[in-house]
Amino acid sequence: MAWTSAWSVAMLTAALAFSIPSAGWSQEKAISIELNDATNVDSACRLVFVAVNKTGVLLDKTSYDVVTFDAAGKVGKSLTFQFGRLPVGKTKVVQFDLPGQACDTISRLLVNDIAECSVDGKASDVCIDALTTTTRAKIEFGL
Fold first, then answer.
1. CB within 8 A of 8, min separation 6: which ones?
2. For the segment 111-137, what is each residue's pLDDT rounded down to a tens digit?
């Protein structure tokens, strides 16, 4: 009986190991973008992002279609955030000012889609397929 239980546990463990995607792989082959800060500057909300390309390929051009949401969850503006060239493994800080918008009026930023993504001069979906998001600001940021 003990042998049967041990065998069952071993088989269950093996099945789980093969059925659950490895978290290391998804983090390893990713474009991670963090909303690092959101600060009111003059009459604009300044958003600061930290991006790291861990896909293993040079991204020639990278832009995202991002949508804002207000405190009530209503869709606000549709914006294009251009991150530009993202070399493999390099950390890049970019900032965008939203004129006429106070940061406390934005509850969420949604990455709606890619606006532009090119690898070796050709359009690619890697910029959205490999995207992971995090936030350090009070504004929710995600897909």
1. none
2. 999 999 999 999 999 999 999 999 999
Rounded Cα distance, 131 and 86, in Å: 13
Helix (H/G/I), strand (E/B), else coil: 15: helix
Q: Is the pLDDT of residue 16 over 50?
A: no
Only one residue has tokens 């995090």, namely: 134
Provide the token pair at 91. Answer: 């950390």
Angle at 47 between CA 41 and CA 49, to 5 degrees: 145
Query: pTM, whole model, 2 decimals?
Result: 0.78
Round to whole Å and give the CA distance between 28 and 110.
23
Q: How far apart are CA 35 and CA 48, in angstroms?
A: 6
Q: What's the residue count for the chain?
A: 143
